[in-house]
Amino acid sequence: MKVLVTGAAGFIGSTTGELLLAKGHEVVALDNLVSGRVENVPAGATFVEGDCGDADLIRSLGSFDACVHFAARIEPGESMRFPEVFFSNNVASTFRLLEALVHSGVERFVFSSSCAVYGNQVEMPIDESRSIQPQSPYGQSKRMVEEGLSWLVSTGRLRAASMRYFNAAGGTLAHPERHSPEIHLIPIALDAADGRREYLEIFGDDYPTPDGTCIRDYIHVSDLAEAHVLAISALEDHPELVLNLGSGVGFSNRQVVETIKRVTGLDFEVRFTDRRPGDPAAAVASNERAREILGWRPERSEIEAIIEDAWAAHRSV
Questions:
Q1: Which of 19, 53, 125, 264 could form a disulfide with 96 if both were Cys (CB 3.0 to 4.6 A apart)?
Q2: Which domain holds residue 97?
Q3: Could you tell me the pTM of the whole model?
Q4: How is 153-193 classified by DSSP, letter by letter?
Q5: pLDDT (0 to 100) of residue 181
Q6: CATH number, domain with residue 153
Q7: Which backbone phi and psi does 300 adopt, to 5 degrees?
């Protein structure tokens, strides 16, 4: 198949593009390089520098069998400060992309959604039937795209999969996790471990959790990539899919830090500060539906394996 991958110079997009190529697919890698890095684009992909919301550019690329859409702003805290930026980039640009794809006859669309659509949930794990109540403009932007995709599916315009993944982590030597600015716990902690930062700052130690810090479900980026590739094929039999992608196990911020210190053999300073707006106390996935429909089996998502791979990738940069 010929697949358009948007956000292909980012962490998850580049890893997925590489996997698609390894499985024999043709990949067109689109990225505006605002936050992506051109060196991340996998060798063998046709790279196009541009914005996914440029409908004329999308139409000029010709037809595709599928599109996997990763291009988005991803910072929940930042979305609380600048909601308009997130709705413009994550929602408006996505619908311009969709309009161009439908016009070009693309039938399958795999969307990088988020567990942020669930907002604050009390009972864990969270399955796909849980209520949708985003607590940030970021989460709301993902919800809005999912709703639009449902209308496109119901009117026969597209077949779509919304992949609600939890905390992408890990990395490969070819595709380490590097965001600018970095907002994720594991790469920031690894920076502190090797002296690139003076200390690690954790937002909040007064959450209603066993140790007072947030609990998150970490999923290896390679496992995420596999699920996205499987979803393209699954859309042959399922016109619409909404799937959680997580390991099914939650770890608190303190537990992650302890594991990082153990894996690296390095100590570093940890400071606690106020909670970050939009952060739920806990988010742990039920991944049973993805396992059943996709035949997906996360193979690298034990927390030690995630951190080992992240550390190896971190040291390669």
A1: 53
A2: 2-169+219-245
A3: 0.96
A4: HHTTS-EEEEEEE-EEE---SSS----SS---HHHHHHHHH
A5: 74
A6: 3.40.50.720
A7: -125, 20
